[in-house]
Amino acid sequence: MLLDEYNSCNIERMLNGFKKFILRGNVVDLAVGIVIGAAFNSVVQEFVKGIFTPTLGILGGIPDFSHFTLHIGKSTILIGAFLNAAISFLIVATAIYFFVIVPMNKLKDLSVKGKNTDPLMKSCEYCYSEISVKATRCPHCTSKLDEK
């Protein structure tokens, strides 16, 4: 009887812990990011297969890279599939850089731009580390500082 109460209490505690874990913002954000990433990947794959590669075919005479194969013995090496995947990767990386990284860096710069710096800190003129304005010697590079 006592063992059953102990087990049910542990199970209840584990379920409550699991519920707290699942409902944290980071887990939900990660799940949403994965779903959106998978959807974005399928869009990019179709863009490469249906628009980008045929456009390259117009310019270079090769409408689809997926038919490039290399036959060695009984093995078939799918060079074209790799080229399509590499092109997809470059497009995804470019899109992430220009539509996520660049705007986030711009927002970060704008948020830091308006803030005042700490009047109790200064930058070492030799190693550029943040140090107290009262310091006469840098604790990082041990240089003697000018008294200003």
What does this structure look like?
The structure is a single chain. A hairpin with a 6-residue loop joins strand 3 (121-123) and strand 4 (130-132). The protein has three helices and four strands; from the N terminus they run ααββαββ. The chain is mainly alpha-helical. It folds into two domains: 2-115, Orthogonal Bundle (Non-ribosomal Peptide Synthetase Peptidyl Carrier Protein, Chain A); 118-148, no CATH class. It is extended. It has a two-stranded antiparallel sheet with strand order 1-2.
Any chance you could write out the topology, listing elements then pairs?
Layout: H1 2-22, H2 25-60, E1 70-72, E2 75-77, H3 79-113, E3 121-123, E4 130-132
Antiparallel strand pairs: 1-2, 3-4
Helix pairs in contact: 2-3
CATH C-level name of the largest domain? Mainly Alpha
**In percent, how helical is the residue content?**
55-70%
- Domains (count): 2
Residues in β-strands, percent = 5-15%
Task: Report the major sheet.
Answer: 2 strands, antiparallel
CATH superfamily of the largest domain: Large-conductance mechanosensitive channel, MscL, domain 1
Radius of gyration: 29 Å
Low-pLDDT residue intervals, each spanning 5 or more residues: none
Rounded to the nearest angstrom, the distance between the terminal CA atoms is 77 Å
Instruction: Write the H/E string, N to C.
Output: HHEEHEE
Write out the strand line-up for the largest beta sheet, numbering strands in chain order. 1-2
Mean pLDDT: 80
What distinguishing features does this structure have?
148 residues; mainly alpha; Non-ribosomal Peptide Synthetase Peptidyl Carrier Protein, Chain A; 2 domains; two-stranded antiparallel sheet; extended
